[in-house]
Specification:
The protein is mainly beta. The protein has 4 helices and 24 strands. The protein has 3 domains: 44 residues, no CATH class; 176 residues, no CATH class; 133 residues, Immunoglobulin-like. Strand 8 and strand 9 form a beta hairpin. Bound molecules: calcium ion. The site of calcium ion has 8 residues, from helix 4.
Length: 384
């Protein structure tokens, strides 16, 4: 059975089961930080004032570019042009990048599509259009004409030729609102002694944030994997395509292949001579198990893996008179593979009864702790 077909069956089974302790699941899926701080929705509008002049930016539409949805602003704060109220003077495209937890700005430059990082909630420093940008501080309270906003995040943007203690300008963004304050604080940069806060240029005076999927009143439901506020077949498709993926430490080492060799006794050893995909009653065979280390550390395993046949009387172990001692501890480096066998070379299996055979394979460490296991099937045909 293909693994993709297993999931709907499982879901139907789950649907018939009630969970008396269902509140063990969180009430809602978490929005990413960047979505929380930047409520992008067509129709949203922000008006800023410096006391005399006003700037208003609106989201006037969306645009799909290279599979990404960008929000089109009619204008936006200019990057790095100081506090004189200068804006981009043109439409600006911004989008979320959930993996980076960043807001990216689109440019079509010299015939290429280029995204530059405007705000990076992942922290640290990054470059943008000739500026060095910094995630400066979280948890700042901002008092502006539109109200008091707590838990603001401060970003700073400075020219590479600026001194170490100054920056070109800064922005404060508030959860559920976006940018609430645009400041030019750096005294040394401007040739004055002004410090942060001395020269606030534009503060949020009013704003319109339309209700949208993912905001505080319309949270993502549990299971909404593509964040469209609906749990439907699209989420099921995402879940199904990742079915049985495992990134847990116990999944670092995995059985990646099982090979059966018909063999014969040469002296005291069973030597493999033909790879087969099915067996016939009377065949003597050995099994080779390939394991791969997907983790980031070397794993030590026992070279003899466990193997249990089901039904158990379909196969028996045959042995030469040679002593069967061959257990060893072997290292499997990260990105490396190893070949294990369930028996020493003085032993082999013999197919006894025809039928469908299930092989349960276990990989253990030296202390008999099972590191990984898997199940494979084969067929034993009747001898004719
Ligand atoms: Ca969904």
């Amino acid at each position: 059975m293909k693994k993709g077909l297993v999931l709907p069956v499982v879901l139907i089974m789950l649907a018939s089961i009630s969970f008396p302790n269902a509140n063990i699941f969180s009430e809602q899926a978490e929005a990413s930080i960047v979505e929380n701080y930047f409520p992008f929705h067509v129709g949203n509008q922000w008006t800023y004032t410096d006391g005399t002049k006003e700037l208003t930016f609106s989201i006037i539409g969306t645009q799909e570019i290279n599979g990404h949805t960008y929000y089109k602003f009619d204008d936006y704060f200019s990057a790095g042009l100081g506090g004189d109220g200068q804006t981009m003077g043109t439409e600006v495209l911004l989008r979320y990048d959930r993996e980076l937890d960043a807001v990216l700005m689109y440019f079509h430059f010299r015939g290429e599509d280029v995204d530059i990082t405007r705000y990076n909630f992942g922290g640290g420093r990054w470059a943008m259009a000739g500026l060095e940008c910094r995630f400066k501080q979280r948890g700042v309270t901002c008092d502006v004409p539109a109200g008091q906003f707590s838990d603001c995040t401060n970003f700073q943007f400075l020219g590479y030729d600026a001194g170490p203690d100054c920056y070109g300008y800064g922005e404060y963004v508030a959860p559920g609102v976006g940018c609430v304050k645009y400041v030019v604080p750096g005294g040394a940069c401007l040739g004055t002694d002004q410090k942060e806060g001395d020269l606030v240029t534009f503060q949020l005076r009013s704003y319109q944030i339309l209700p949208s999927c993912g905001d505080a009143d319309h949270p993502y439901p549990v299971g909404d994997l593509n964040h469209d506020c609906r749990v439907d077949m699209f989420d099921l498709a995402i879940l199904s395509s990742n079915w049985l993926e495992c990134t847990a430490p116990e999944c670092d080492l995995r059985i990646t292949d099982v090979t059966i060799f018909r063999c014969e006794l040469v002296g005291n050893r069973f030597e493999r001579f033909e790879e087969v995909h099915e067996l016939t009653v009377g065949d003597v065979f050995v099994v080779q198990v390939e394991i791969f280390n997907f983790g980031h550390q070397t794993k030590n395993v026992l070279n003899l893996c466990g193997l249990v046949f089901s039904p158990e009387n379909c196969v028996k172990v045959v042995a030469s008179s040679w002593p069967s001692v061959c257990a060893a501890n072997i290292p499997v480096p990260t990105g490396g593979r190893a070949l294990l066998t369930p028996l020493c070379s003085s032993q082999a299996f013999k197919a006894e009864e025809a039928g469908h055979v299930i092989m349960h394979i276990y990989v253990d460490d030296w202390n008999s702790r099972t590191i990984c296991d898997s199940t494979f099937t084969t067929e034993i045909l009747s001898a004719q």
